[in-house]
Amino acid sequence: MLSRILSEDFPRSKALTALLLVIVVSLALGPFLYDGIRAFTTLGMICVFIMVVAAYDLMLGYTQIVSFAHTMFFGIGAYGVAMAINGMGSTFGAVLVGVCGALVVSFVLSLLLGLLSLRVKAIFFALVTLAVAFAFLSLVTQLYGITGGEDGMRVRVPRELGPAFRPFENSLPGIDVPTLLKGLFTQPWNMGQVWQEATFEVRFNGRNVMYYVLVAMATGVFLFLLRLVNSPFGRVLQAIRENEFRAEALGYRTVVYRTAVVILSAVVATLAGAGFALFNRYVNPENTLNFELMVFILLMCVIGGMGTLYGAIVGSTLFILAQNYMQDLLSWVGQYTAGIPLVENLLGEDHWLLWFGVLFVLSVYFFPAGVVGQLRIWSLRRRNRKAPPPSGTGAEPVVQV
Amino acid sequence: MTDETTAMATTRTGPVSGQERRSPIEWLRAQREHRAHLFLLAIMLLASIAVIDFQTWLVLTISGVAMGAVLFLMASGMTLTFGLMSVLNLAHGAFISLGAFAGGTVLAFWLNGYASSPSLLTNLVAIIPALLFAAFVAGVVGLVFEKLVIKPVYGDHLKQILVTVGGSIILMQLIEVIWGPNEIPVTRPEALRGAFMVPEALPLIGGIVLEKYRLVAVVLGLAIYAGMLWIIDRTRIGILIRAGVESREMVEIQGYRIHLLFLGVFIAGSALAGLGGVMWGMYKELLTPHMGDEMMISVIVVIILGGLGSIRGCFYGALLVGLINLYIGFVEPRLAAVATVGLMVAVLMWRPQGLIPVIRV
Fold first, then answer.
1. Which candidate, B190, B171, B181, B197, places its Cα nearest to that of B293?
2. Which of A77, A252, B191, B288 could bond B120 through an S-S bridge, CB–CB 3.0 to 4.6 Å?
3. How far is Cα B39 from Cα A378, in angstroms, rounded to an integer?
4. Do A274 and A52 form a contact (C-beta atoms < 8 A)?
5. Which of A287, A280, A284, A289 is nearest to A144 (CA)?
6. pLDDT above 70: residue B78
7. Residue A251 CB coordination number (10 Å)
């Protein structure tokens, strides 16, 4: 059963399994385990970016197509929904029209981009997508008549997805895990009180409904992509990644496969963008189309581990946690370094990205397989040490990540 | 290999010096094939002059060439690093910002007194150190950057893209750490401010107003282009660079330390990016840490248009981008960026290797 669901692509590492379980449980029970609006938003963003990064990994990790136009499709989805709701009112019909319209636009644009890759080779393609995405960004920023320009648009979501909607009469019980853990370590003799502090009431409203829609979308997309990369289609993609020329010589039309991957990943990014617009209820160029966002997606994909879909889960979770909570960490460190002129500045809470950049470059050098890939390599090594392979294979075992 | 050389031979030799008379259409077709860059430039100039009235057109053209000159400064380093070592440095934009901030510091803080005095000579005391300091800072950081970030990932394009994107984040953040996250206004030196009018008496061009700074940018850009062409075409270093672009291994076999050459080119390229950055900063009179990133798109379009690795292509690409920006910006400002990218896509459809291809990717 589990093997069917995961398409026989298991985490293959105990540490990774544990990490994934923690993340999945946290996401599934999120609103009941973490108190406060900030934690709630963080959880929602993780769901959105799992979709975006998984789709990006399909291109970057499995087929080795470097595209910088991923945010463009994300933005098309977000703006499609926002504009449809703006024009047609807050109904589910408008949402449907927006999503369908955005999907059509994304499909056409990605088809054109995919066909462009007929003419230009790998590194050119990366540069061309970068330029196209920029042109799109500038167009959205300039056409303030329909997109709101720099100010962006508020998305008035249907009532069922807004905070005013209450599906349940009573509030539900919740238990705040961070408070509980903190209490467990600081005052374990006083668990009764800690427990009391940690419990809180969840007023389940339309935003939580939207959150669970996102969770369902992310689950569906992830399992679908997992199925896809472990199918014969996925094998061809990996063959293209390893050696495109040879894949073509074997009779696969690599252009068709590459175009299909570009389109598929654009479609998923569009869906994620629509989900983002409905969850965040505010869309502007900075949170959907910016080049910086594109870089963030790239970082998530690489840190999680390219060519492993589980990497999308781990990478986006780690990155978004860092984005939201590393400032707290830095300001905590900042208490102790205040007064030292340059250090104080370097550890300023606004500069979390600096440290993330350093971590990123170091991880590309030393752990090019990312978190997931590295955990798998370690676990494989340990297994091989326990049960040495039959003699004759000799050299370092081939590691498939 | 043979395929490569023949392809290059056909694109390099230019029109066949045929004695026989040919019809103008054939001549045009030959021009289109062999001098694609000039052909495209001519089309753009002619098409725009048909739409815009002459005096405006002249002002726009000069401004476009000025922008092209600054773009050329920024893009030349990137195209050469790619051509020579096939290193794609996406952190190039950070060097542009870095140069702008370094030069801006000289102008706005250290030598502010000289920069704001009305005499040209005193101004130069501020401008020249600003330009040199920008180039110096960008060059030194380029040296460190090459050693620390780029050297470990030679030959792996994907990793290059990743680490240079990471390096670009680090550099941008360091700029914010040092200069603060806010925008810094930099006033142009007195002598470069304002404009002058062509006397009314002159026919055709009488009465048009030319901004001084743009003329300076044109002159500086042309001077650096000429100097670069001289180095590339006439000096020993230039021969090595050209040979390295075509075949790195062959140069190595001859006993030259290609890495040292590459390091030099990388430093020079970073310094030129810094120079372009300070020129751009003086043009905008406002420094933001992300100004380099914003220029990166134009830079990328320029080097793709020109053909990666080609200095001449880079120059013409920069001119084309500068001109189309100004022309389209005049007709419909909102479409300038789209037109730039549209030009690139159109050229790529026509010539996937760029206008003056040097290397095959």
1. B171
2. B191
3. 59
4. no
5. A284
6. yes
7. 6
Confidence (pLDDT) at B3: 43
DSSP label at residue B187? P
Complex ipTM > 0.85 = no
A121 to B361: CB separation less than 8 angstroms, yes or no: yes
Provide φ and ψ at B196, rounded to 5°. Answer: -130, 160
Domain membership of residue A378 (yes or no) is yes
CB contact under 8 A, A132 and B177: no
Contact A135 B341 (CB under 8 A): yes
Residue A222 is part of which domain span?
2-167+204-385
Q: Where are the alpha helices (DSSP H) in A338-389?
A: 341-346, 352-366, 370-386
CA A121 centroid distance within chain: 27
Write down the pLDDT at residue A393: 45
- Beta carbons of A94 and A108 less than 8 angstroms apart: no
pTM comes to 0.85
Q: CA Rg, chain A, in Å? A: 23
Which among B360, B352, B359, B356 is positioned nearest to B36, based on CA atoms? B356
Residue A38 lies inside a defined structural domain of this protein: yes
Give the total number of structural domains in chain A.
1
In terms of CA atoms, which chain B residue is nearest residue A64? B158
**Contact (CB, 8 A) for A53 and A315:** yes
DSSP state letters, B3-42? HHHHHHHHHHS-S----S---HHHHHHHHHHH-HHHHHHH
Q: Is residue A230 part of a domain?
A: yes
Q: Environment class of residue B50 by beta-carbon count within 10 Å: exposed (0-12), middle (13-18) or buried (19+)?
A: exposed
**Optimal mutation site among B294, B345, B349, B360, interface A, most CBs of chain A within 10 A:** B345
Residues of chain A with Cβ-Cβ distance to B301 below 8 Å are: 131
- The CATH number assigned to the domain holding A155 equals 1.10.3470
> Between chains, do A360 and B169 touch, taking CB under 8 Å as contact?
yes
Q: Is residue A157 part of a domain?
A: yes
Strands A172-175 and B195-197: unpaired
Domain ranges of chain B: 37-350
Q: Are A141 and A150 in contact (CB under 8 A)?
A: yes
- Asked whether A314 and A371 are in contact (CB, 8 A), the reply is yes
Q: B37-350, which class in CATH?
A: mainly alpha
